[in-house]
Amino acid sequence: MMQNVHLAPETDEDDLYSGYNDYNPTYDTEDLENDTAFQQAVRTSHGRRHPITAKIPSTAVTRPVATGYGSKTSLASSMGRPMTGAIQDGVTRPMTAVRAAGFTKAALRGSSFDPLGQSRGPAPPLEAKNEDSPEEKIRQLEKKVNELVEESCIANSCGDLKLALEKAKDAGRKERVLVRQREQVTTPENINLDLTYSVLFNLANQYSANEMYTEALNTYQVIVKNKMFSNAGKLKMNMGNIYLKQRNYSKAIKFYRMALDQIPSVHKEMRIKIMQNIGVTFIKTGQYSDAINSFEHIMSMAPNLKAGFNLILSYFAIGDQEKMKKSFQKLIAVPLEIDEDDKYISPSDDPHTNLVIEAIKNDHLRQMERERKAMAEKYIMTAAKLIAPVIETSFAVGYDWCVEVVKASQYVELANDLEINKAITYLRQKDFTQAVDTLKMFEKKDSRVKSAAATNLSFLYYLENEFAQASSYADLAVNSDRYNPSALTNKGNTVFANGDYEKAAEFYKEALRNDSSCTEALYNIGLSYKKLNRLSEALDCFLKLHAILRNSAQVLYQIANVYELMEDPNQAIEWLMQLISVVPTDSRALSKLGELHDSEGDKSQAFQYYYESYRYFPSNIEVIEWLGAYYIDTQFCEKAIQYFERASLIQPTQVKWQLMVASCFRRSGNYQKALDTYKDIHKKFPENVECLRFLVRLCTDIGLKEVQEYATKLKRLEKMKEIREQRIKSGRDGSGGSRGKREGSAGSDASYVDPLGPQVERPKTAAKKRVDEDDFADEELGDDLLPE
Question: Where is the segment annotated Disordered (predicted)?
Fold first, then answer.
């Protein structure tokens, strides 16, 4: 076994390759002709291969090569060197490499082992960046363009549209400089097309946001016409949106269809949105049949709430009752794809589970779900209100059909709201009996619906001045739902109507604690404090309300009125000026401004506002009287005549206006016209002493014969007046004793004040609104805009 193991000689340790240059007869090629194995190999296909150097004859001498076949010898190399690992003279040649890996024996003598070259010291410092090179300038400019685009987008999201547009324009200018520099340094193929696209797209968006539609369309055209931008055809949808804003509906439809053709069918959602835009555009142009085709396709492919609602609108426009019913059923069947409310109720007392549920109860996803559900309810309620009066013979039957459909769907809770809306429709038709009967049906429902119905019933009875019934239903609404701010507000209104302003303020405060956005309660608190003469607290309430409702004319007037009661006319004038900026045609506000300026002694400003008030409402007797008196004071009696003539038309039974007309003629020197006017007045009012006195005076001055007749009538009237006064005086003296006996009972009647009399300021009412925010809007705002 050890016969093939040979140890290397110890005499020469370094000469591992010794003996290979010695001649070995084993590798002699002279006997190859007698080697049968070699000759057989020559006769095979390998032996018939063409020589490598066919054209140039080789100079090497052909020698037979021994294959070792049968002789157990291996082939020699071209240098006559035996192959590594071959057996030579019974000695096995060890395997070796060209060079030692990692170290040599000489290295062991001089230095330590360092394969990584760490002994050479630290690496040389990096070469300094050449900032003046063209490539570096291009790189920095490209970075700056990207930053400008980002800043433009951020400014747009923050609402600063002007700054966003400036940044977008600056990015466009720098991008063009970048393109020119890159063309000078490199080939055009190296231009960054993505950067150019983003710059132009952002610029077009900013133009559109700033309503510069022509510039936006031009920028979009640059992108769309450039064939180097891939998928630029989608931007035609944006161009269609701009044409829609410009009300150029034909071009909008054209670009929407072009965008639809260029968007592949795999982008299903995008195609649905474009088709929805096409349908809306058709509705705006009155092409309801085309709109129906678009929305029907959407409802068959990917039904959604907006498309379903628009489909109902289209069928309503053409009056197709059956299709309206089917479309309403399709709208009801649209899946909401939101979680049930039970998911947010903890099933166990596990604190970890409770924490998770508490965290997700009001997160962004939950808020989105609420918004989607609220939007669905709004569409369904609006659609039901729209089609109920037309799908059946009467709106009541139509509402009943809608209620039945809703009850069989996932929106069961909307059925009660539809019933309440049915009652509101009765109110709009002035059918209060049916409205009350419909609302009374909810008295046996659950607490939420009962509270809503009772709130509306209280509101109705309050408007009819039946405060006992209003208070009863307000109590029912409050007991059903103590946290209903509308119910508490209506309860406060009934108490306010009975004169208990302190208690009314407490109800309003409780309503405000339950719902801080209940502006009716805050407004009515201010009215209560004003009635209690707590003017500073009333002013605080109205100022808070002004911060919420910036352009409310009622709030502005109340603030001015409180300042007037606090004897601060300058502040009152300032707030009234804000009021007429909101309602410039309100004659009462203008007359109040004139009154305040008149009290301050500024007659010219007072005349300006009184005249504006008369121009908008020429039937206000107080304004007419002030203007007539103003012209008389300024010695322009001719101009005062038209105002007193109008006053005589408004109040024909009041003789003083006609006397003022005659007096103006007399003061202006037109005695004949004055005489004729006095004669007309005497015919209408023959017992008027003042008219006869002026007739006697005028006839005397002019020298007319009728003076004796008018003088006789005047004496007779004066004598009759004296006799009448004597009778009244004697009657009073004779009945003095009996009158004294009756003073006890009459005293109680004299102190009686009718609690249901006309209110100068009535508190706002709060009706329960479920469908339309404009329901009973006028009643909720109150009727005390400009009290006298």
Answer: 1-30, 111-135, 725-788
- In this predicted model, what pLDDT tens digit does every residue of 335-347 receive, in sequence order? 887 766 666 676 6
What does the radius of gyration of the chain's CA atoms come to, in whole angstroms? 52
- DSSP percent split of the chain into helix, strand, coil, nearest 5: 70, 0, 30
Average pLDDT, the chain: 78
User: Contact 489/768 with Cβ under 8 angstroms?
Assistant: no
Centre a 10 Å sphere on the Cβ of residue 347 and count the other Cβ atoms it contains. Answer: 9
Run of H or E residues at 88: strand 87-88
Classify the C-alpha dihedral 769-772-774-775 as positive or negative: negative
DSSP helix/strand/coil, 697: helix
Is 83:26 a contact under the CB 8 Å cutoff? no
**pLDDT 10s digits, 243-301:** 999 999 999 999 999 999 888 888 888 999 999 999 999 999 999 999 999 999 999 98
Provide the phi-psi class of 212: left if phi over 0, else alpha when psi is between -120 and 50, else beta.
Answer: beta
Burial class from Cβ neighbours inside 10 Å (0-12, 13-18, 19+) for residue 592 reads buried
The backbone torsions φ and ψ at residue 786, rounded to the nearest 5 degrees and listed phi first, read -135, 75
* Per-residue CA distances from 717 to 197, 680, 681, 690 (Å): 100, 18, 16, 11
Instruction: Indicate the pTM of the whole model.
Output: 0.54
Amino acid symbol at 518: C
Cα–Cα distance, 316 to 633 (Å, whole number): 64
Q: How far apart are CA 492 and CA 474, in angstroms?
A: 9
How many Cα neighbours within 13 Å face the side chain of 101?
2
What residues does 76 pair with on adjacent strands? Answer: 82
- Note the pLDDT tens digit of each residue in 32-45: 677 777 777 767 65
Assigned token pair, 73: 């010898």
